[in-house]
Write a structure and sequence with these properties.
F-box domain-containing protein, 4 domains, elongated, 11-stranded antiparallel beta sheet, F-box-like_dom_sf, two-stranded antiparallel sheet, alpha+beta, about 35% helix, signal, about 400 residues
């Protein structure tokens, strides 16, 4: 088909050299049309194959000399209609239009032409949508994971390209191979963009690290109430929920139908299996809100549990006479449990804090103080309806 189009185009160029235009012709634009394939259709094909915005083929006026010849051409009048294109707008109005488009609208307009494709993929238009939908659940750890994700994807594409170079290809397949390599290079240039990250999240292709509140509580595991565990999540656009994979000892645990309200971005750079270094112990005082690491045994990952700083037993709770802040010991309270529960209180040391606990009650790790009201309000939203034992 390509060879046929090139031959036809060559014929047009040659015919222009011996066909002289008739200035007395009454037609605006005459185009020959054969019974099986009209020149109008060929004209449209060349227009669609053109990479420029507007390329009009010069139409030829047929001389009277060939009117009764064996060609028997059929004359058709074609009038080119001039109109205003979206690309005729200045850059500022065009950018204002693109800023109003939704993510699906930007993806659609990127399919129109090369110029709009480059504009539609600009990070400037996608950062707003990224922050609006994914800002609360995507943190620094997720972006680092995204970098590793695209690096592995690029290595896989490069491996496929290198493997093809050692295979035998006929001339036609060799041409297709070069075209494929060009597409790979183009893909690698745009894969690390805000649009690519947004699409990978929206389609569920990218499993990003985040934290899930009240892990598996809906499945009857009440012991995870007021906790937050690390997980890798994938978005399901059909249900507008998430699927989580929890790192655990032995087989990996999967939980589905996780709502947006139960997810937050990772708050620290510490991995779930590593003890968090506490840097807030010296400033802890009664009624401060904290999160503390806890795990069942040394083989399981840490989870973050919500609590508050309480008064020592030697303190009467009077804020004017309280000296709890200057003592070496700190009392932590978990008020979601009853006053007689063994999980209600725990004592830690400011100066020599390390992982504490046993196989029966679990192990307590690092402490993180909550400063922002948004974080405190998030814990209060998931507070249990009844006191736990």
């Amino acid at each position: 088909m390509l060879f046929f189009l090139i031959s036809c185009f060559s014929f047009l160029l040659i015919s222009k050299s011996f066909l002289k235009p008739n200035p007395n012709s009454k037609f605006y634009s005459k185009i020959w049309a054969f019974p099986c394939f009209s020149w109008v259709e060929l004209h449209k094909i060349f227009k669609s194959l053109s990479r420029k915005r507007r390329i009009f083929l010069n139409s030829f006026q047929v001389p009277i000399l060939f009117k009764n010849s064996f060609f028997s051409p059929n004359f058709e009048t074609v009038e080119e209609k001039q109109g205003t294109s979206l690309l005729d707008l200045p850059d500022l109005p065009l950018d204002c239009i693109l800023e109003k488009l939704s993510p699906s609208g930007l993806c659609t307009i990127a399919k129109v032409c090369r110029s709009l494709r480059d504009r539609g993929r600009n990070d400037h238009f996608w950062e707003k949508h990224m922050k609006q939908k994914w800002g609360a659940v995507i943190g620094d750890a997720a972006y680092r994971e995204w970098e590793c994700f695209i690096d592995s994807k690029r290595e896989f594409l490069n491996f496929r390209t290198q493997r093809r170079r050692f295979q035998f290809f006929p001339s036609f397949l060799y041409f297709l191979r070069n075209k494929s390599e060009m597409r790979v290079k183009k893909c690698s240039l745009t894969v690390n963009s805000v649009m690519s990250c947004y699409v990978a999240l929206e389609t569920g292709e990218f499993w990003f690290p985040a934290q899930v509140f009240n892990r598996e509580v809906q499945n009857g595991h009440v012991g995870f109430t007021l906790s937050c565990y690390d997980a890798h999540l994938s978005y399901d656009s059909t249900t507008d929920n998430f699927v989580a994979r929890y790192p655990a000892h032995g087989r990996r645990i999967i939980e589905a139908d996780i709502e947006w309200s139960r997810i937050r971005a990772t708050t620290v750079n510490t991995r779930a299996q590593v003890l968090h270094i506490s840097d807030c112990l010296d400033e802890l005082k009664p009624n401060d809100h904290i999160e503390i690491q806890w795990r069942r045994n040394n083989e399981f990952p840490y989870g973050w549990w919500y609590g508050v700083v309480g008064h020592l037993e030697s303190c009467n709770g009077n804020e004017f006479n309280c000296q709890c802040q200057i003592r070496d010991d700190v009392m932590l309270e978990f008020k979601q449990y009853s006053s007689g529960s063994k999980w209600r209180k725990i004592m830690i040391s400011r100066k020599d804090h390390r992982e504490e606990g046993n196989e029966a009650d679990g192990f307590y790790g690092g402490i993180r103080k909550l400063y922002r009201e948004e974080e405190i309000a998030k814990w209060k939203q998931i507070w249990p309806n009844c006191t736990l034992e």
